[in-house]
């Protein structure tokens, strides 16, 4: 196999959100969105690029992680003052590097897998010290704006969901859960998840949902365990995407 064929076989299309992010980066570099200017609303950007609003939300999150834009709650998203300098210092045009997995797509996969994991764990109906430990730590998180508490929540949330797979006693399920857990370590996931959990009331709600899931599993209630997992993930999806539009991404026009 020649080098050209090898390169072709390794070609991977960019996620929709990264295509949108690149279009916005180009608009910043080209002067359409100058430093400190306000970007169009998510709805307007979705219409402009013919994609879903969740895809735009993910693109904005990626640009925030790159410190090119900043979002002011209740005001909108603005181009950072030093965005042009950052764009000039970063990778050459066309070299976009590694893209994080789409959080919304990740949640779609989790919605298929995690209710089944909860059912399997409920069949055993056993308590689990590690899961209870993660629950206790999450209950101590009160302010996600504090970096140490944000990091604690992120780690406990990720490990709690992985521990549900451990509670099935199935090694294959644990390996699958390990792959899911990796996506929850990615900066884009953490950015959008933290933006969605922005006050003590929302944190308490998430803690309660985790507790419901765990108690249903411990008491061997398969239907309740699957139901609570599904409802929790649907809430996370709404909070991350910040709207109730259909979750599927549409193809970005050239």
Describe this structure as you would to a colleague:
This protein has 254 residues and is mainly alpha-helical. The protein is 65% helix and 3% strand. The protein is built from 12 helices and 2 strands, in the order H-H-H-H-E-E-H-H-H-H-H-H-H-H. The chain has helices at residues 3-9, 16-29, 42-49, 53-65, 83-89, 103-124, 129-139, 147-166, 171-183, 187-196, 200-218, 222-241, and strands at residues 69-72, 76-79. It has a two-stranded antiparallel sheet with strand order 1-2. Helix 6 (103-124) runs antiparallel to helix 12 (222-241), helix 7 runs antiparallel to helix 11 and helix 10 (187-196) crosses helix 12 (222-241). The longest helix has 22 residues, at 103-124.
Provide key terms for this protein.
254 residues; mainly alpha; two-stranded antiparallel sheet; 2 strands
Main sheet, how many strands, which sense, barrel? 2 strands, antiparallel
Q: Which H/E pattern describes the elements?
A: HHHHEEHHHHHHHH
Total beta-strand segments? 2
Q: Provide the low-confidence segments as ranges.
A: 92-96, 243-251
Strand order of the largest sheet: 1-2
Average predicted confidence as pLDDT: 86
Global shape: elongated
* Structural class by helix and strand composition: mainly alpha
Give the fraction of residues assigned to helices.
55-70%
Q: How many separate helices?
A: 12
What fraction strand? under 5%
Output the radius of gyration. 20 Å
Query: Cα distance, first to last residue?
Result: 31 Å
């Amino acid at each position: 196999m020649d080098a050209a064929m090898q390169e072709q076989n390794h070609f991977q299309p960019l996620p929709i959100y990264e295509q949108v992010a690149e279009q916005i980066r180009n608009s910043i570099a080209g002067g359409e969105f100058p430093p400190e200017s306000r970007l169009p609303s998510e709805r307007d950007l979705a219409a402009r690029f013919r994609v879903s609003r969740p895809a735009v939300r993910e693109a904005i999150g990626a640009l925030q992680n790159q410190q090119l834009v900043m979002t002011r709650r209740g005001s909108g998203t603005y181009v950072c003052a030093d965005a042009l300098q950052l764009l000039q210092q970063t990778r050459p045009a066309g070299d976009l590097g590694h893209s994080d997995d789409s959080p919304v797509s990740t949640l779609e996969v989790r919605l298929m897998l995690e209710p089944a994991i909860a059912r399997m764990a409920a069949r055993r109906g056993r308590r689990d010290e590690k899961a209870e430990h993660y629950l206790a730590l999450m209950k101590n998180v009160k302010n996600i704006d504090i970096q140490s508490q944000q990091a604690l929540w992120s780690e406990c949330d990720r490990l709690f969901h992985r521990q549900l797979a451990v509670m099935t006693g199935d090694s294959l399920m644990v390996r699958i859960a390990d792959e899911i857990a990796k996506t929850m370590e990615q900066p884009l996931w953490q950015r959008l998840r933290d933006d969605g959990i922005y006050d003590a009331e929302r944190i308490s709600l998430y803690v309660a949902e985790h507790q419901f899931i765990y108690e249903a599993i411990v008491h061997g209630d398969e239907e309740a365990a699957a139901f609570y997992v599904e409802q929790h993930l649907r809430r996370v999806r709404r909070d991350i995407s910040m709207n109730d539009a259909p979750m599927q991404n549409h193809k970005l026009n050239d």
